Amino acid sequence: MDTPRNIPFSEELERWLRGHGPKTLLSLDKVFAEKSFAVIFTLLLAFSALPIPTGGLSHAFGIIAALIALQVLIGRRSLWIPERWRSLHINRSMQEKFIPALIRLIRWLEKYSRPRYSYILQSRPVVRFYGLAVFVFALAVGVSPPFSGLDTLPSLGVVLMSLAIVLEDFYLFLVGLVVGVFGVSLMIFIGKAAFELFTRLF
Fold it and tell me: Is the pLDDT of residue 2 over 50?
């Protein structure tokens, strides 16, 4: 069953956070149903999109998000989670600091976002394009140099696109796509410049 749209997504996420059930990827799939892909991408990539210390986890989350994005790309309607990831638990620190910060961001977006051209976001080609974009952006997060900050924009792009799916706002989806493309382009430009400098020096 889909998340009721008369209840703000931020409130639904807060209810899940405060509930007594396990805080795992599998529980997200059960609670948010066919929008669980977008919710999981939001949680995994917001970790590096928000201005908080990540302790290196952003790279691992980026790789996990990229692998899950392949399921969207091939057209799966429900989430398949490998056995070793099903018990991947959101620790207490993330529950008390990270997710509340994410909820505040979502509430701010909900003030300005509304359903716009939602039928486009529900079309199969766009859903698969979304999977491809998340795969590329998340992979960029996973391979970005540690502590460089280059993972921020690709992560933010995924978060905005995923929230656009949940909030059914095509305009927000386009904003997220532009942010993500710019972030990946910046990584490529800086990487190319660094490589050229290295070859000149050595």
Answer: no
